[in-house]
Write a structure and sequence with these properties.
Helix content: 25-40%
Number of domains: 1
CATH superfamily: Alpha/Beta hydrolase fold, catalytic domain
Shape: globular
CATH class: Alpha Beta
CATH topology: Rossmann fold
Largest sheet: 8 strands, mixed
Number of helices: 10
CATH architecture: 3-Layer(aba) Sandwich
Strand content: 15-25%
Order of helices and strands: HHEEEHEHEHEHHEHEHH
Number of strands: 8
């Protein structure tokens, strides 16, 4: 790991960084990684309901604590560079959101690139969102979308799509180090020895697969010219994340467009730090910030 000694990782994250790959996904190992996700999906905790919608879209449903009244909800979209991943990888995280906020959380299994390029995965997410807001236990006025990495990018795109179609008034969008702008894959000066789990090279690979022949100005949420009218947003990212610059820029553009936006930047944190070092204080604070943002939007009656 060239240059590792000169990288200023967050003190709580430096040890884990030594054992983490910079770019674990390549065109040659994607099949194996997907097979591992399939095995993970086969293990279903007792409190998770696995459903398949008539459209074929999969859902892993996490219900709020027993006795909760009709309340808010969140559609959660997993990460994986638009190429890999499964909603099962976020079972523990979705459970925490459901319990701490007293809301229903539906994690969507969307079609992956490159076999299913844009807009396949995005339309799957929209189908899942339509289903979620129609649940008897859900107040459709208190529904958020959220996701991490590519799931954060899809959440941003879904918020834009929902606004454009005018059918579902979202309460909030939670964008956790979102993969939101393909142009960063070719910008000079972004690659850094402190990057983990996703690099500029990985970024080019993921976006090429996702976009296929689509027009980037239409398919890439970070390229949207007018961000006005979108739901309130939370954007979180580390300074050693390959997405740092694009995420900060998107948050600033949201604010300029009049969209309330909280921006949480974690010094010395790399991509996915809150998953690989979930017990650290910095990861716990990162999650707590998300919960505090969502609470007044989806379930203000629940006191943290």
């Amino acid at each position: 790991m060239s240059g590792l000694s000169s990288v200023e990782f967050h003190p709580e994250l430096a040890r884990a960084a030594r054992f983490m790959p910079r770019s674990p996904i390549t065109p040659w190992n994607i099949g194996f990684v997907r097979w591992m996700s399939y095995l993970q999906e086969r293990r279903t905790p007792d409190d998770v309901e696995v459903l398949t919608l008539p459209s074929g879209v999969g859902i892993r449903l996490h219900r709020p604590p027993a006795g909760a009244d009709r309340g808010g909800a969140m559609l959660w979209i997993h990460g994986g560079g638009y190429l890999i991943g499964s909603p099962a990888q976020d079972d523990a995280l979705c459970r925490r959101f459901a319990q701490e906020l007293g809301i229903t959380v539906a994690a969507v299994k969307y079609r992956l690139a490159p076999e299913n390029p844009y807009p396949s995965g995005l339309e799957d997410c929209y189908t899942a969102l339509q289903w979620l807001v129609d649940l008897p236990a859900v107040d459709p006025a208190r529904v958020a979308v959220g996701g991490s990495s590519a799931g954060g990018g899809l959440s941003a795109a879904l918020a834009q799509l929902a606004y454009d179609r005018g059918e579902i008034p979202l309460a909030a969008q939670l964008l956790v180090y979102p993969m939101i702008d393909d142009r960063s894959g070719s910008q000079p000066g972004i690659d850094h020895p402190g990057h983990r789990l996703w690099t500029q090279k990985s970024n080019r690979f993921g976006w090429r697969a996702y976009l296929g022949g689509a027009d980037p100005d239409v398919a890439v949420p970070g390229r949207r010219a007018d961000l006005s009218g979108l739901p309130p947003a939370w954007v979180g990212v580390g300074t050693l994340d390959v997405f740092h610059n694009e995420d900060v820029e998107y948050a600033e553009r949201l604010r300029t467009a009049g969209v309330p936006c909280e921006l949480e930047v974690v010094p010395g944190a790399y991509h996915g730090f809150d998953g690989v070092a979930a017990k650290t204080q910095v990861a716990q604070a990162f999650f707590a910030s998300q919960v505090e943002f969502l609470r007044p939007m989806v379930n203000p009656a629940v006191v943290g």
